[in-house]
Amino acid sequence: MKAPWVSVIGWSGSGKTALLTHLVRVLRQRGLTVAAVKHSSDSHGLHKPGSDTEGLEKAGAAPVGLSTPAGVQLTFPGETAAALPAMLESLAPEADLVLVEGWKDGPFPKIEVWRKELGPLIATGRSDVLAVVTDEPLPHHFRRFSAAAVPELADFLTQWVAERVRASHQDSAERDISHLTSED
Fold it and tell me: pLDDT by residue (tens digit) across 91-121?
């Protein structure tokens, strides 16, 4: 099954990184394998200026990889947003959930981290926001988690992932049955 993706969105300084860091730890403690992607709408270099990998990229190598005792990083040229889900699925097929920091206009369901003083509620008028993390009161139609309720948000996401897994298995079984009955 393809891992479901959820974008954690919010205004700059709202606490997205802090929430994601805590959330990943809690989800990992519960046995989920979590992949993470940081999305940026800013175009900036992915290699240190003057580095060997920058030179390889400028020469036209694609992708360019960096391997150290701490891990491996691969960079791909150009706009890869459309290809990102398939790339990550092939590189991390064991992931149960992919959390994306940012990507307000991306194609995935979202959790908004909102602080009133930073800007208006992004979730207003949108159907793709699953929940809002805030200590502010919200209209009742929004699912709300306080900033300190990371375990409860993890419960919600664990259930949400389980529902997607069940639906995926059910869809697969229905396709198998349909295929068998269409051969008769």
Answer: 778 889 999 999 898 889 999 999 999 999 9
User: CB-based contacts of 130: which residues, under 8 Å, 6+ apart?
Assistant: 6, 109, 110, 111, 143, 156, 160
Domain residue limits at 95? 5-39+74-182
State pLDDT tens for residues 53-85. 888 888 988 888 888 899 888 887 776 666 777
Decide: helix, strand or coil at residue 67: strand
Nearest alpha-carbon partner for 147 in 55, 20, 19, 36: 19
Predicted TM-score (pTM) above 0.85: no
The conformation of residue 39, written as its DSSP 8-state character, comes to -
- Report whether 15 contacts 115 (CB < 8 A): yes
**Beta bridge pairs of residue 73:** 66
| Domain tally, the chain | 1
CATH number for 21: 3.40.50.300
